[in-house]
């Protein structure tokens, strides 16, 4: 079992409250997933030459200023780092592939959580409350986000196995359910040079969809291929630079509910996570239908 | 009579359910701020009246006997599942598996019901004001389901003796389900159930779906066709 939440604010003045609105949603899904939690939040877009890298260190005492020093010695241009505890966001205008290679080579124990112009990603083991507190989710600002509470059923409980999963740039996916053919998907993708970081089933879905979009599919076509090729139970919630997207498998075994007002679109596995949102009594509430694609744009 | 009011944001669900099981003395009971909690008013076994003001989570009013439970909101998975008797009324929409395995009583859903409504129904009655999702009435053994709107795929798959009445259209019939002519007693049944549920549709607009009973006996010549 797992819990998913998503929130997109329609008014720019609400972006400063995104984290604060979301935390009770995430904590509301604690019963559905208490071993790990994670969040991808989409902030203002960097210019085309810059990228953000969310980094996770297993070592709580990691020396981020040393990493910044080494980074600046290696890459020219401007670099910023925003670190708290074992998590940091590096912003740089260096070539993304070179940055990834450099990180892998010099800091093999660091986990690159996400890359993009808008996405910041946090995920870790612990209850949703603990993870929210650890990374100060309440203070996060942005236009939309995707969150997850995990109760592992098919692979280990580690930060790397927690959701959201990312692939490529500014794309993330969370999953409630289980896939029955993740290995088949991997065997299809790996010969194409697509590398996996974990043995988690959701990572297979995430990399499959990102691969389809890199091959030219739009999100809708990629998901149509997903319906044909991904076997199992799922409610998927995806985030891109300016969109949230939701799909459920044809049996709709895994729950989802949407609340929409003039101010926001909120998505959760269950209503309990929406009950405390402002003006929820006047929200339009509905259950997304199976095998239908729901997309909300910022 | 004065209502006894419980505020679920102040009182624990266990305390409320224990009162409903052992403390209720006939006064109507109102539960406020349910906020989607699971298992509200489950296992009631006396003829009490309970109103829940808001949306409920999973299994609300499950295993109900005799009680009259109204949910003034939407219901999550498995509302009134395994109901034995009494009445459960959802004024909003119901999620999957509404009325699953209900053995008696009446479940009324004013809005739509999601997939698998009335799955394995064993004698209860369900009236849905809106439409039902796919695989509704799957393996339903006894009881009646009245659908005022449409049905999704595979309605009535592997039906036993339960009967479905539908006003709109079914996207597809399940294995062994078939449309049958309405008899006078069918019109009367639909009229009575609509009246009990508070809907004013004309029973003449409903069609009957029941089991063709081809699955009742093993047919070696069917070549695993079903």
State mean pLDDT of chain A (0 to 100 scale). Answer: 96
Any idea what the radius of gyration of chain A is?
Answer: 18 Å
Number of domains of chain A: 2
Main sheet attributes: strand count, strand direction, barrel closure of chain A: 7 strands, antiparallel
Low-confidence stretches of chain B: none
Distance between the termini of chain B: 56 Å
| Proportion of residues in β-strands of chain B | 15-25%
Q: Regions of chain A with pLDDT < 50 over 5+ consecutive residues?
A: none
Strand order of the largest sheet of chain A: 7-2-8-1-14-13-15
User: So, CATH architecture of chain B?
Assistant: 3 Solenoid
If strands are numbered along the chain, what order do they take across the biggest sheet of chain B? 1-2-3-4-5-6-7-8-9-11-10
Describe, in plain words, how this protein is organized in 3D.
The complex is a heterodimer of chains A (298) and B (226). Chain A is of the alpha+beta class and 298 residues long. Chain A has 2 domains: 2-45 and 122-297, Aminohydrolase, N-terminal nucleophile (Ntn) domain (Glutamine Phosphoribosylpyrophosphate, subunit 1, domain 1, 4-Layer Sandwich); 49-117, Alpha-Beta Plaits (2-Layer Sandwich), CATH 3.30.70. Helix content of chain A is 24%, strand content 32%. Chain A has 7 helices and 16 strands. In chain A, the strands form 3 sheets. Chain A has a 7-stranded antiparallel sheet, with helices on one face. Chain A has a 5-stranded antiparallel sheet with strand order 9-10-11-12-16, with helices on one face. In chain A, strand 4 (79-84) and strand 5 form a beta hairpin. The radius of gyration of chain A is 18 Å and the shape is globular. The model of chain A has no long low-confidence stretch (mean pLDDT 96). By secondary structure, chain B is of the alpha/beta class. Chain B has a single domain (37-217), classed as 3 Solenoid (Pectate Lyase C-like), CATH 2.160.20.60. Helices cover 11% and strands 23% of the residues of chain B. In chain B, strands 1-2-3-4-5-6-7-8-9-11-10 form an 11-stranded mixed sheet, with helices on one face. In chain B, helix 1 (13-23) links the parallel strand 1 and strand 2 (29-32). Chain B is elongated, with a radius of gyration of 18 Å. The mean pLDDT of chain B is 96. The interface between A and B is medium-sized, with 17 and 18 residues.
């Amino acid at each position: 079992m797992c819990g998913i939440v998503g929130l997109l604010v329609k008014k720019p003045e609400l972006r400063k409250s995104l984290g604060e609105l979301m935390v009770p949603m995430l904590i509301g899904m604690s019963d559905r997933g208490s071993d790990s939690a994670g969040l991808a939040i989409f902030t203002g877009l960097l210019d085309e030459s810059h990228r953000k890298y969310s980094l996770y260190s297993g070592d709580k005492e990691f020396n981020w200023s040393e990493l910044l020093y080494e980074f600046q010695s290696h890459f020219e241009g401007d670099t910023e780092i925003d670190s708290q505890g074992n998590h940091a966001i590096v912003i740089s205008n260096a070539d993304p592939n070179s940055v990834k290679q450099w990180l892998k080579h010099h800091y093999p124990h660091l986990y690159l959580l996400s890359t993009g112009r808008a996405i910041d990603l946090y995920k870790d083991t612990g209850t949703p409350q603990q993870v929210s507190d650890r990374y100060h989710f309440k203070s996060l600002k942005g236009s939309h986000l995707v969150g997850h509470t995990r109760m592992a059923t098919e692979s280990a409980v580690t930060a790397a196995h927690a959701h959201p999963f990312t692939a490529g740039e500014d794309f993330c996916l969370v999953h409630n359910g289980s896939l029955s053919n993740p290995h088949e998907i991997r065997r299809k993708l790996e010969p194409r040079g697509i590398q996996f970081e974990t043995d988690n089933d959701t990572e297979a879905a995430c990399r499959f969809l990102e691969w389809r979009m890199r091959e030219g599919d739009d999100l809708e076509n990629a998901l149509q291929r997903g319906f044909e090729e991904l076997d199992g139970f799922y409610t998927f919630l995806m985030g891109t630079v300016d969109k949230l997207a939701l799909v459920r498998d044809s049996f709709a075994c895994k729950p989802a509910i949407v609340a929409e007002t003039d101010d926001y679109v909120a998505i959760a596995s269950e209503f309990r996570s929406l009950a405390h949102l402002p003006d929820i009594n006047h929200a339009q509430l509905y259950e997304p239908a199976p095998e239908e694609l729901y997309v909300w744009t910022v | 009579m004065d209502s006894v009011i419980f505020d679920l944001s102040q009182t624990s669900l266990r305390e409320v359910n224990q009162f409903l099981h052992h403390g209720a003395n006939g006064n109507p009971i109102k539960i406020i701020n349910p906020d989607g909690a699971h298992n509200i008013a489950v296992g009631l076994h006396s003829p009490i009246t309970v109103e829940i003001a808001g949306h409920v989570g999973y299994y609300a009013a499950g295993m109900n006997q005799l009680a009259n439970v109204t949910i003034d909101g939407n219901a999550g998975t498995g509302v009134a599942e395994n109901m034995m008797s009494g009445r459960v009324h959802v004024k909003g929409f119901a999620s999957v598996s509404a009325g699953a395995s209900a053995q008696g009583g009446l479940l009324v859903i004013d809005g739509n019901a999601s997939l698998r409504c009335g799955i394995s129904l064993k004698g209860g009655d369900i009236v849905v004001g809106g439409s039902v999702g796919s695989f509704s009435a799957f393996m339903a053994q006894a009881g009646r389901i009245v659908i005022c709107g449409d049905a999704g795929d595979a309605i009535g798959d592997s039906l036993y003796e339960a009967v479905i009445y539908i006003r709109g259209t079914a996207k597809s019939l399940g294995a062994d389900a078939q449309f049958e002519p309405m008899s006078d007693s069918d019109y009367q049944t639909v009229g009575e159930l609509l009246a009990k549920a508070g809907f004013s549709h004309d029973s003449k607009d409903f069609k009957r779906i029941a089991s063709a009973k081809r699955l009742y006996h093993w047919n070696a010549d069917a070549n695993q066709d079903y």
